[in-house]
């Protein structure tokens, strides 16, 4: 949670102004949904942190043409899968950021290397634990079929987070009013 707030501060300060960075970090830190999720011991706050850090590292890596930041972004994107395999669908949310690479496609390789490294390490871990490097992927695909395709309720529902963000506004507080 603190890493995510710090990443938002870093991004907003550099992209806009220090005042905007402070305000953005305070908004995130005091958002009811962020407080509720960050104080629970489960994967969602860690996934949220990896998503935010991935975005910030890709942004600054492309802006500064810095291979270490881009490689770190790949590791963070891979960290999303390590933390919560079903959250890998969030990788699609990062696709619009490819626009940042429009003049430096060769630098995209550092992000891909970071992602591939994390996936290889995950496969080695699964080989050690379960005897099958694709064990968790098979389990996740089965869970997707059972919970999403065949229909899930509650936290397994495909619209779970959409409901929290757009219908049940208690969880985001007044964030929309401060745009």
Helix segment tally? 8
Biggest pleated sheet: none
Relative helix content: 55-70%
Overall shape: globular
- Which runs of at least 5 residues are low in confidence (pLDDT < 50)? none
Order of helices and strands: HHHHHHHH
Overall pLDDT confidence: 82
How much of the sequence lies in strands comes to: under 5%
What does this structure look like?
The chain is mainly alpha-helical. It contains eight helices and no strands. Helix 1 (2-15) packs antiparallel against helix 2 (18-30), helix 1 (2-15) packs parallel to helix 4 and helix 5 (67-83) packs parallel to helix 6. It is globular. The model has no long low-confidence stretch (mean pLDDT 82).
List the defining traits of the structure above.
66% helix; single chain; 0% strand; mainly alpha; 179 residues; 8 helices
Q: Helices and strands in order, then pairings?
A:
Layout: H1 2-15, H2 18-30, H3 32-38, H4 44-64, H5 67-83, H6 108-130, H7 135-149, H8 160-167
In brief, what are we looking at here?
This protein is an all-alpha fold. It has helices at 2-15, 18-30, 32-38, 44-64, 67-83, 108-130, 135-149, 160-167.
């Amino acid at each position: 949670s603190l890493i995510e707030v710090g990443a938002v501060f870093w991004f907003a300060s550099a992209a806009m102004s220090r005042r905007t960075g402070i305000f953005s970090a305070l908004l995130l830190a005091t958002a009811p949904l962020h407080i509720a999720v960050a104080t629970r011991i489960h994967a969602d706050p860690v996934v949220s942190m990896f998503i935010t850090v991935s975005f910030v590292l890709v942004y600054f890596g492309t802006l500064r043409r810095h291979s270490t930041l881009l490689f770190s972004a790949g590791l963070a994107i891979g960290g999303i899968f390590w933390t919560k395999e079903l959250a890998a669908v969030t990788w699609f949310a990062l696709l619009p950021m490819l626009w940042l690479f429009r003049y430096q496609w060769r630098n995209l390789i550092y992000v891909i290397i970071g992602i591939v490294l994390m996936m290889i390490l995950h496969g080695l871990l699964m080989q050690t634990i379960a005897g099958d490097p694709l064990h968790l992927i098979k389990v996740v695909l089965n869970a997707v079929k059972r919970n999403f395709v065949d229909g899930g309720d509650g936290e397994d529902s495909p619209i779970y987070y959409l409901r929290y963000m757009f219908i049940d506004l208690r969880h985001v507080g007044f964030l929309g009013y401060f745009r």
